[in-house]
Amino acid sequence: MSDQTSMLEVLFTPADALALADLDLADTTCVVFDVLRATSTIVTALAHGATAIIPVAEIPDALALQRQEPQLLLAGERNGMRIDASISGGKDFDFGNSPREFNPERVRGKTIALSTTNGSRVLRACAGAETILIGSFLNLQATADYLKAHPSETTLLVCSGTGHQAAYEDVLCAGALAGLIWPSADEQQAADSAIMARQIYEQSQANLMAALAHSRNARRLLAIPELRGDISWCLQRDVFPLVARMVDSKVIRLPK
User: Fold this and answer.
1) Quick check: bond before 37 cis, omega within 30?
2) I need a surface site. Which of 94, 102, 228, 244 has the fewest CB within 10 A?
3) From CA 128, how far away is CA 114, in angstroms rounded?
4) At 115, which helix (H) or strand (E)?
């Protein structure tokens, strides 16, 4: 991470993101992206009336929370598929990580613990930041408006990635957000990583679905018939005008 202040920077890899847990982030805003699919799922669930989402790194953490709060719902995936009894040690989770599962009838008024391969862990790694926002194409403009209204010395656009690798769709979304807040970031305050992400998005924005033909994550989802529809869902632009922020380990929808 750059030593300069008043900086807009993009972290591309999970290793960069997870290293945030050891840094002083007191004057930093982190916007976390896991476009396919954790952050898109969180935004969808909140838009459909969920009270809060609790990101947890490991399956036992989710199970322990439910023992403390029996009304808590459990969601999560491993290798893209919903966590079931064979993985959890005896319990089928209520949801996987498909945003299309989180409809209003199932989530309204509920708190949900979410454990995913990358996104949940990265959100936890950002816990020391002054502000932690959830980024997706679904709420991109609302997130940009919030950032411009509440500037920080450093804004990090944090890509959760896939496994140990960077994820193309996260970089695209981070680049789109960088472009929206660019008038608030002087060229001297934009790290090379932000310039790169912005340019990648601008080269691909005319047809994001075609661009994702190069994405490992998208190819994996396309190979699973019941999950193919998640890609077009997650690429919808600004369908939910909400800001999602993690406060005291829970992600909530900020009031307007």
Assistant:
1) yes
2) 228
3) 20
4) strand 111-115
58-113 pLDDT, tens digit per residue, is 999 999 999 999 999 999 999 889 999 999 999 999 999 999 999 999 999 999 99
Q: Give the tokens for residue 50.
A: 């969920």
Give the tokens for residue 169. Answer: 């769709």
The angle formed by the CA atoms of residues 30, 36 and 38, to the nearest 5 degrees, is: 55
Tokens, residue 94: 């209520």
Predicted TM-score of the model (pTM): 0.95
User: What are residue 64's phi and psi, to 5 degrees?
Assistant: -65, -40
Q: How many CB atoms lie within 10 A of CB 6?
A: 14
The structure tokens 């719902």 sit at 73
Q: Among all chains, which residue has been given the structure tokens 């089928």?
A: 92
Helix or strand or coil: residue 163?
Answer: coil
Instruction: Please report which helix (H) or strand (E) contains residue 76, including its range.
Output: strand 73-78
- Ordered structural domains, the chain, with CATH: 7-253 (3.90.1560.10)
Return d(Cα 145, Cα 89) in angstroms, integer: 43
